[in-house]
Known about the structure:
Layout: E1 2-7, H1 10-22, E2 26-31, H2 46-55, E3 62-64, H3 69-76, E4 83-87, H4 95-98, E5 104-109, H5 121-127, E6 132-139, E7 149-157, H6 164-187, H7 219-232, E8 240-243, E9 246-254, E10 261-264, E11 269-277
Parallel strand pairs: 1-2, 1-4, 2-3, 4-5
Antiparallel strand pairs: 5-6, 6-7, 8-9, 9-11, 10-11
Helix pairs in contact: 1-6, 5-7
Amino acid sequence: MRVVLVSYSASGFKLLTDACAESGNQPVAYVHARTLRQRRPTSSLSAETVANISQSLPAGADLLLPGSVEGLAEALAGYRPDLILVYGLPWKLSRDVLQIPRLGAINVHTSLLPKYRGPLPVHWAVRNGDPEIGVTIHWMDDHFDTGNMLIQQGGIQIEEDLVTSRLWKETDRLIGDLLAPALRRASAGDAGEPQDETNASYAGWMEPDFMFVDWSHPAGQIHNQVRTFRFNLFGLRGPFAKIDDEWVTVLRTRLEPVDGLRVECGDGPIWITDSAAAVPVDR
């Protein structure tokens, strides 16, 4: 198959490219969204990302850097792809794009769909205190992460004191295991299995107030709020909290007594074990 690969990083493209090589498919183009949202100025991190991607670009493949889905649709038509393979695209592909490949488009999603559809499944899993996540590879349709599933597997543990690089390493390992069988099913035109809508949930962008700690909330909820920022919320430092009329950035907390600053929450205490002075915040 002639496959167009869509991803967010050089490591993401390597996963997809290796899977294509293992299953005998040919990547004809890489697509990288240079902004989290369409028609915005190019991300400050994009130049370094593009440089890393271009170094591993297969001979004969092109690198496309669209600013919108409409531009992507116009660019892809000439490649005559059989399949689009996506891992890490913050935009929803339009019907115009999905109709270009002969077979359609499949997406790698880091949750056990239909749970946590949308752009931030792992962040919401951390925020909700989930003990594990999984991976689903599914057909793409007109909505976010609602298409039939080709393959799914869980078992990726979310550690209490999570390390971002270790969690992504385990996630990528599982994705690597699942891609080849998913591509075989896709190339055969397998329609996959429908999702159970009764278990569906959505993992969208965090609300603005998530930047701030409300001490009236339960301690466990605040603890997971801090963990979510430590996991990495697109480079944002946070959350901000007011303690004795001073703003701080809360970096690490514990729910059991330890050396640190004890703060009373809505249902009991939490201990701040690492924090930093914050620029005064206008909430």
